[in-house]
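Z., the sequence and structure:
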Amino acid sequence: MDKQPITEHLGELRKRILISVVTLAIAFAVCFYYSESIFSILKMPLQNILKLSFSKPYFAFEPTKNAVELFFFEPAEALWMHFKISFIAGFILSTPVIFYEVWKFISPGLLLKEKRYALPFVFVTTFLFLLGALFCFIIVLPFAINFLLTYKTENMKPMLSVGKYIDFCMKFILGFGAVFELPVLLVFLTKMGIVTTEFLSRNRKYAALIAFVIAAMLTPTPDAFNQTLMAVPIILLYEVGIIASRLMGGKDKNRAEENLSRDRKV
């Protein structure tokens, strides 16, 4: 592990942030060009409902009976909507580069054998983030929107603002993308020796409680239905993180000795 002065750390951090920002700006420009197409895709949960069955096809999208139109109530609302979806879509496209830059920043403090995890780290973190976003878009959003628009609304007619709708969708998608990184976080904590798999297993009930608290904070609506839709995957991902941590072997017992011996050589 190379020792660097604080100025070099700050310079390295500035470099990684600059690369990430430039990548995000390019992705934003591309997504803004196709923002109409992206907007059409984001309207799908509003226009379709996911139907599950025990026979093939096991799940399929069907047009909802009560289609809801989107409106904008301010002159700039539609334009800002395109900026928002372009930025979020650009961020999602940029995640491989962003995760790689994060790894490059923290890698100088790792052992040589730990640096070999660079490619798996970038692949797994990107895959889990995209999986969480896709899971939210295909399964959670159609159920959540259909529930909110049909539960005790027989005597009301929805009139949705396009800006509010996009905010609702983006918070859900980004929230699920973030919580799907939980297994990576748990593996990192166990590899660093901050926690152990035994500690994680012993505190499952507290993890379940924290999952519902996090879901309450991340979901844009206060109802228990949508919070449960997020809390249950968090609990399952917690279990996946424990299993992955056991497979990875937790903290290397000789890590401290290796660090100490290398520091002496330096």
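DSSP finds twelve helices and four strands in the chain. The radius of gyration is 22 Å.

Let me know what you think.
H.
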